[in-house]
Amino acid sequence: MNKASLPFLHTFVVAAKHLSFTKAAHELFLTQGAVSQQIRLLEQRLGFSLFVRYHRSLELTPMGARLALHLRHMFADLDGLIEELREERDSTIITLSVMPSFATRWLMPRLGRLQERHPGLQLRIQANDREVNFTRDRIDAAIVHSHLHSGSAYTVPLLVDHVFPVCSPAFAEQNTLQTPADLVHVPLINDDSEWRFFSPYAAWEAWLAKAQVKGVRPSRAMSFNRGDLAVQAALSGQGVALGRTPLVMDDIREGRLLKPFEQVYDNGHVYLFACPNEYRDREPIQQVLNWLQDECRRYMDEVAQ
Amino acid sequence: MNKASLPFLHTFVVAAKHLSFTKAAHELFLTQGAVSQQIRLLEQRLGFSLFVRYHRSLELTPMGARLALHLRHMFADLDGLIEELREERDSTIITLSVMPSFATRWLMPRLGRLQERHPGLQLRIQANDREVNFTRDRIDAAIVHSHLHSGSAYTVPLLVDHVFPVCSPAFAEQNTLQTPADLVHVPLINDDSEWRFFSPYAAWEAWLAKAQVKGVRPSRAMSFNRGDLAVQAALSGQGVALGRTPLVMDDIREGRLLKPFEQVYDNGHVYLFACPNEYRDREPIQQVLNWLQDECRRYMDEVAQ
DNA sequence: GTTTTTGGATTAGCTGAACTAATGCAAGAG
DNA sequence: CTCTTGCATTAGTTCAGCTAATCCAAAAAC
Fold first, then answer.
1. Where does the signal peptide begin and end (chains A, B) (predicted)?
2. Which tens digit of pLDDT belongs to each residue from B134-146?
C-alpha cells in the first residue's frame, strides 16, 4: 500500500467510529466533503470498498470492519509507545547497569557520597550479568568489563583490575602460605561467573600459570557463580579466593582480608563507564560520571598507598 | 501524536534501516533534503530525537531504535492485513455458514444440482452452531434460523419449519401409536441443540403442550445435541423423535420414516438466507441464492403433494 | 598537506495533493 | 408536500512538503 495514504487511514477510523462522514469531519476539523473524498480515494487505492453507502447512512463492509478494528489497535499501540518514549525522555531517574559483584562490593559502600553530593539525583542500580544493550533494555548507562558489544557508545575507562589470592587472617594463621606452591594444601575458592560453561576454573588456571606454580589442581576448588560470593567465602575463612582489586581492597585495608603472596597480575580487565552517545550530555549522566571518576581517583590513591 | 506526520514515520523506518538519509531518499524517490527535513520535523513533533548526527554518519538513539522496531512490525502487519483483504475480494470461493443438522439432512442431498447448474462455482460449507457474525468471521453468506443478531444484513426467507413426531416404520409396527397420549409408553428422542442449558427438553414440552397431552415426562428421552443425530436415531428405530420438516421430509417421502399422528405445529421458525448488504449483488452470491430459492420451491411442492 | 569526495543541513521558491465552499440529490421526518 | 439531513461531486484555492542549489565539515585519496 502507498504510504502516502496513511493519514487517510486515520480519517477512516474516525469515520468508522461514527459511521458518519459529517461527524468525523467535525471531529477532525475538516469539511464533510474532505472526508468523503479521502474515503473514496482510500477505497480506490486499497482496491476494495470500506463502506456501503445508503440514503443518508453508512455501513461498514466486512472488510472495512476488519480493517477498522486492526487500525484502532494499531493507532492505540503507536500512541502508547510514543507516550512512553516521551515519559522516558522526561524521566529524571537514571538506570545504571552494573555487574552484581562490583555493585555489592565496590559501588554500594560508595553510593552514600553520591547522594550527599546530588541529593536530588534518582539512581536505579540494575545488577545483572546480561550483555549490555542500550537499544533493547531501558538502561541509561552501564559499568562494563573491558568491551561493549552493542554498537557505538560513549565510553570512559574507570579502573583497571588486578588479580591475586586472598584469605582471612585467621585462615592464614592456621595454614602455611609462604609461596604460591603452598596452595596445593589448602581449599581454593573459585569464581566462575565469567567463563562458566567453557572453562569454569580459567581464573585460577591463568593466575597459577602466571605465577609458574605447577601441580595445583584448581578443579578441587569450591565454586561460586558470583565474584562477591567467592570473596564472602574467603572472608569467612573457607579458603583462598582469587580477588579482584575493586572487590577486595576495602576489606584488605580494614584488615578483614590479607594477601598471602606478593604476586599480583594485571589481567587486562578495565572497568568502563558506558552510555549511549546521545545521553552523554544529559546532566544527571554527567553527575554520575563525574562522581564515579572522583571515587575512582580516591580509590586509586588508597590502593597506591 | 499528530496523524498528519504518519507518512514521516514510514520515511523514518526506511532511514533507520539504511542509517542514511541519502540511501533512504533514493529508495523513496525523494531528495536527500526532503528526508532530512521530514526527520527534523518528525523529531520536533514527537518531542525527542531519533538520530544522533555525526560527521557524515547517523546513529539511532535508544528511543529511535525502539520506535523503528515497533514501526517495522506495524507496517508489516498492516501490509499483511491489506493483502489478505485484497485476496478475499478476489476470491471466487463462497463460504456459506449453515446449522449442521440442516447442512447434512437438507443441503447435502441437493448440492449436486448446484454443481450441475454452475460447474465453476466454488462453495465452501461451514457447518456450526455459532451465532453468525459477518464482521468477525470470514463468511460470505449464511442460512440462519429466524433472526440475525449481527447488524444489518440482506435477508431472504427461504422456508418455514414445522414440527411433529416421527419414527421408523418398524418401530411403529412394534408399538401402539394411535394418539399422542401413547407417547407415554415409548422411548422419546430429543434434540437439545437449541436450548441446551436453559431448558433441554423445551422442544418436546412445547409440542406436547400444543397437542394437549398430559403425563408424558420428556425428560426420560434420550437426547442429542444435534438435530440430525436425533433423526438418525429415529431412522434406526430407537424411538420417536421430533422432526423438523426440512430434516425429515426426504425420509418420509422415501418411506424410511413415518408420521404416526396428524398433529403438525408451526413453531414459528423461518430459515433465512443472509449475507452482508454489500455482497448482495456479487454474482456467485446471486447464483447460490437463486438456486436455494429454486430448491425451496421444489421442496415446498413435494411437501404439499 | 592538499584535494576530492561524501553525506547531512539549510534555504528559497515551487507545485500539486488535499482542502473548502457551494451545489446537487434523494430519503425520511414533520 | 415541504423541510431537513447527510453523502457525492466539482471548481477553485492554498499551504505542506518537495526540489534544487548551496553550504559545511569529516574522511578518503593522492
1. none
2. 877 888 899 988 7
Residue A190: enclosing H or E segment and its boundaries?
strand A188-191
**Which residues of chain A make contact with B274, given a CB cutoff of 8 A?**
none
Is B241 in contact with B233 (CB distance < 8 Å)? yes
pLDDT at res. B79:
93
Contact between residue A228 and residue A241 where contact means Cβ atoms under 8 Å apart: no
Residue A171 CB neighbours (<10 A): 22
**Chain A nearest CA to B146, separation (Å):** 22
Write down the pLDDT at residue B101. 86
Q: What pLDDT, on the 0 to 100 scale, is given for residue A150? A: 57
Q: How many whole angstroms separate alpha carbon B80 and alpha carbon B52?
A: 32
Interface touch B89/A47, C-beta < 8 Å: yes
The minimal CB distance from A152 to the residues B59, B82, B277 is found for B59
Angle CA(B202)–CA(B206)–CA(B210) in degrees, nearest 5? 175
Q: What is the mean pLDDT of chain B?
A: 84
Nucleotide closest in space to A54 (CA vs C1'):
D7
Q: Nearest Cβ partner of B78 from A74, A79, A151?
A: A74
Q: List domains and CATH numbers for chain B.
A: 3-82 (1.10.10.10), 90-149+274-304 (3.40.190.10), 161-269 (3.40.190.10)
Mean pLDDT of B41-53: 89
Residue A122 in grid coordinates: 534518582
What's the gap between Cα A22 and its chain centre? 51
Which has more confidence, A101 or B213? A101
